[in-house]
Amino acid sequence: MKRAIMKRPMNSLTGFLARRLARCLALLLLAILCGLGAPSARAAEQVVLQLKWHPQFQFAGYYAADKLGYFAAEGLAVTIRPRQPGPNPVDVVLAGQADFGVSGSAVVLSRLRGRPVVLLAAVFQHAPLVLLTRSEDGILGPSELKGRRIMLGPEREDALLLAMLRNQGLGPDDFIRVPHTFSDTALIDEEVDAVSAYVTNQPFQYRRRGVAVNIINPVGYGFDFYGDTLFTSEALARRRPDLVAAMRRASLKGWRYALDHPEQVIDWLIADYGSTKSRDYLAYEAGMTRRMIMPNLIEIGHVNPARLNWIADVYRAEGLAPPAGRLDGLLFDDLMTPQVRLPDWVRWLGGGLGLLGAASFALLALNRRLKRLVAERTRELERARDRLQYYLDIVDKYVLTSATDLSGRITYVSSAFARATGYDKAELLGRTHGLIRHPDNPDSLYQEMWSTVLAGRSWHREMKNLARDGSTFWVESNIEPTRDHDGTIIGFTAVRIDITDKKRIEELSVTDRLTGLFNRFRLDEVLAREFGRFERYGRPLGVILADVDHFKQINDSLGHGAGDRVLAGLARVLADKVRAADVVGRWGGEEFLILCPETDLEGALMMAGKLRAALGEAAVEGLDLPAGRRLTASFGVAVSRPGDTIDSLISRADQGLYRAKNEGRDRIRTIEGVGGSGEAAPEPEPV
């Protein structure tokens, strides 16, 4: 009896525990099944972007990327941190207190000094850093600052200005360096004679206060550095290249939007991001920022390795970087995917030519200034003028310079300019530059040039020119308005650098040697650019893949020489028949790629039909085909559509080509479908 009484509580406890255990196991199983059946949401990567100053339009692209969700779309949660007193962005990022930073060409100097920074994008193609002086003091150039008080920031951030000063003969002991207080009153109250500033905004502040200032721009003295850059640490770039690439993509996308919609971004800066600047201030800064970025001429973020090497050479030459300092690992793309580079002498040549052109223009401008002020200058300036004339004589011999009046009539040409064109100086004077205009240059190019210089701004562009004997030569043109003592524009001065050899080298690097068409490397660049236009503006991009039929049989039976002639012949047909806006190149082996911008499916099919018909009528010199045989090719056609990637677009064209081969060759096929059916669209008759 006693045993039975004790057994019931024990059985009750055991049953209770068993039921609880079964319930827990069921819940655990359910959780596992739910976890397997439902995709897990990926948590956004938390990263910090360290700015170099406070919220303003200088950083509009990053704020736009945040506001529009571009960062979020890349899986990033970005904290945009304004600069605080203390370390600069490079120090902050390398200390692990931020993942990305905004700096200037200081990243080049940092890398030369052995600091592991990686450059992702050069957003500002020109550095906005300048020196400002009071107009009433009459200080117009760096050489006039000897013994004066100059307010400068830390060496790394104002290295560009220090390089300019050293180049003009002012070492550290030749002026009084005053630490920067970032206050406009120092110059106004005559506490200093010159102050480092950003041309994108600070002249506006002085103008609002009624203070006239002179701008000493390093560009005028041959120091055209990159401005704001996006960078990260080498450790992060190597550990998480996917995250770094995502940050760059979203940031550049934000910059494109900000430059196209400045008013909207200004609203966000004031309402959402705590900018204390006025709307007029931000609007002025937006306009100047656009001039620094040059989005209509250069892809936003583009970095020229030759220019980086030239900047590095300047830092070394001016003693700001160790002579043995190297840039290896500075560029993110090179760090991830090393590419074949042009020889060092080519990069040195490009940098040297850029320096010579900028320096020669500065010499011309300085010479005019010295002639106006010679009566008031000291004997030191008179000696400087004599030295300057010596250099101008060198410029006359080796640099292509000219000057015109307001109507464009030539009033001066250098001996080098006359020699390059094949005309005598007397033949050029009084004529216009239309005498050497190349027919490939569109009217819009000259309209842009005139509208820019007549508005008082500088104009820079690479141009084709036509010499007297009909030959073509390429120049890098830099045109500046010429002003009288009242500031009125009275004409224009142009400095041109002959870059014909550079263009030839560039052409060799992007051209297929056998066919003379673009090679795969160049096609990839153009494809990325045109696909980007489709993504931004929704303009269709047609893609045609062409493949020579029975090419292996031709090679095997007639020899590889015959095969080469077939490829060269097909290339000539394609190049002759495509439109001016189309791009054709050798994709690989016997495959050719034709890109048709702003072309829908019907237009791409018609173009493929035109090429197929032309090929059927073509004869290849030195190629004897069996009786009844002719040279043919198969074509696959695709057109961009929403949600596409470059790979998916090319893949559809390749599938169309595969279908054409399987159905008997010498035909055009597409899998784009009609009404989304996925069936091949009707093949057009050849035209």
Describe this protein's structure.
The chain is α+β, with helices and mostly antiparallel strands. It is built from 25 helices and 20 strands. The strands form 4 sheets. Strands 2-1-3-10-4 form a 5-stranded mixed beta sheet, with helices on both faces. It has a 5-stranded mixed beta sheet with strand order 7-6-8-5-9. α25 links the parallel β19 (633-639) and β20. The protein starts with a helix and ends in a 17-residue tail after the last strand. This is diguanylate cyclase.
The CATH homology group name of the largest domain: Periplasmic binding protein-like II
Number of strands: 20
Radius of gyration: 32 Å
CATH class of the largest domain: Alpha Beta
Dominant shape: globular
Biggest sheet character = 5 strands, mixed
EC number: 2.7.7.65
Keywords: Membrane, Signal, Transmembrane, Transmembrane helix
GO molecular function: diguanylate cyclase activity
Enzyme class: transferase
Q: How do you describe this structure in short?
A:
The protein contains 25 helices and 20 strands.
Question: Which features would summarize this protein structure in a list?
Answer:
D-Maltodextrin-Binding Protein, domain 2; 687 residues; 45% helix; 5-stranded mixed β-sheet; 20 strands; disordered N terminus; alpha+beta; Beta-Lactamase
Task: Give the SSE map.
Layout: H1 2-37, E1 45-50, H2 60-67, H3 70-73, E2 76-81, H4 89-94, E3 100-103, H5 106-112, E4 117-122, E5 129-134, E6 149-152, H6 159-167, E7 176-179, H7 185-188, E8 194-198, H8 202-208, E9 213-216, E10 229-233, H9 234-239, H10 241-260, H11 262-271, H12 279-293, H13 305-317, H14 332-336, H15 344-373, H16 379-398, E11 400-405, E12 410-413, H17 415-421, H18 425-428, H19 443-454, E13 459-466, E14 472-483, E15 489-498, H20 500-510, H21 520-537, E16 541-548, H22 551-558, H23 560-577, E17 583-588, E18 591-597, H24 601-617, E19 633-639, H25 646-662, E20 668-670
Parallel strand pairs: 1-2, 1-3, 6-7, 6-8, 19-20
Antiparallel strand pairs: 3-10, 4-10, 5-8, 5-9, 11-12, 11-15, 13-14, 14-15, 16-18, 16-19, 17-18
